């Protein structure tokens, strides 16, 4: 953000961030908090609830009712829900979207991330939390095992329903994203199998005002703040262009 933009009357005062499936408010605060602080914007990280998608929608609208135009952002399914909200209930009240690691467009039928969420929910129901966390940790990098082990324990037992709802979510289609009028900053990693970079590229190509920044899976895994700062740079580059 340009130095003098902090005094702009149309600068958003708050960023509302939504975590990805199986993640929580603690992660999005770490991912987006430093970038929000850099820009002088308050961060509100939403904690998942049992009514995962509808809960996010309601709280975004409630915060916009209270605060006026807001900046919204999210990781994975959180990114998709913020785009959906900006296209619908948030139209005219959204200052832009930070979309980190979008996982699919439209129905989740063939999405790898949705399949992973369904499988995890099934394992939690069949084997319980401890066994599911242990199995996940065996096949994951240390940073990912630590992060998911922490958030899954924090969210359980509601985690099962959240995963099932996420796996059934219909994300905005590319055609719908073409109708987005606010600046869209996207971040993706070419080496992240759950969040295919082709999805992010399709979103960036479709949206009228979008920019895509790339990071690596290992880099953002070990430094979550890279997601927020990359989103901020991408969003600001588009915002500056549209403002000019």
Strand content: 5-15%
- How large is the radius of gyration? 17 Å
Mean pLDDT: 94
Q: What's the number of extended β-strand segments?
A: 6
CATH class of the largest domain: Alpha Beta
* Strand line-up across the major sheet: 2-1-3-4-5-6
Number of folding domains? 2
Query: What structural class should be given to the helix and strand makeup?
Result: alpha/beta
Quickly count the helices.
11
Question: Would you identify the CATH H-level superfamily of the largest domain?
Answer: Alpha/Beta hydrolase fold, catalytic domain
- N→C terminal distance: 14 Å
Characterization of this structure:
- This protein has a six-stranded parallel β-sheet with strand order 2-1-3-4-5-6.
- About 50% of the residues are buried.
- It has eleven helices and six strands.
- With about 240 residues, it is an alpha/beta fold.
- Helix 1 links the parallel strand 1 and strand 2.
- It has two domains: about 5-105 and about 170-244, Alpha/Beta hydrolase fold, catalytic domain (Rossmann fold); about 110-165, no CATH class.
């Amino acid at each position: 953000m340009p130095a003098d933009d902090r005094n702009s009357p149309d600068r958003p005062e708050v960023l509302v961030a939504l975590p990805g499936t199986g993640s929580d408010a603690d992660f999005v605060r770490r991912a987006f908090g430093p970038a929000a602080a850099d820009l002088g914007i308050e961060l509100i990280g939403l904690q998942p609830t049992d009514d995962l998608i509808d809960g996010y929608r309601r709280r975004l609208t409630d915060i916009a009712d209270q605060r006026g135009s807001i900046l919204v952002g999210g990781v994975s399914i959180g990114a998709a829900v913020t785009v959906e909200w900006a296209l619908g209930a948030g139209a005219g009240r959204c200052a832009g979207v930070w979309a980190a690691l979008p996982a699919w467009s439209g129905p989740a039928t063939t999405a790898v991330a949705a399949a992973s969420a369904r499988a995890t929910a099934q394992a939690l129901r069949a084997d319980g939390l401890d066994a599911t966390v242990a199995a996940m940790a065996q096949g994951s990098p240390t940073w990912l095992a630590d992060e998911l082990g922490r958030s899954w324990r924090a969210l359980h037992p509601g985690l099962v329903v959240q995963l099932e709802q996420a796996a059934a979510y219909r994300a905005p289609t590319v055609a719908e994203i073409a109708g987005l009028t606010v600046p869209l900053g996207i971040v993706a990693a070419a080496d992240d199998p759950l969040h295919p970079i082709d999805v992010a590229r399709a979103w960036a190509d479709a949206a009228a005002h979008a920019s895509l920044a790339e990071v690596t899976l290992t880099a953002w895994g070990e430094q979550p703040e890279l997601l927020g700062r990359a989103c901020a740079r991408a969003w600001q580059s588009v915002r500056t262009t549209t403002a000019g």
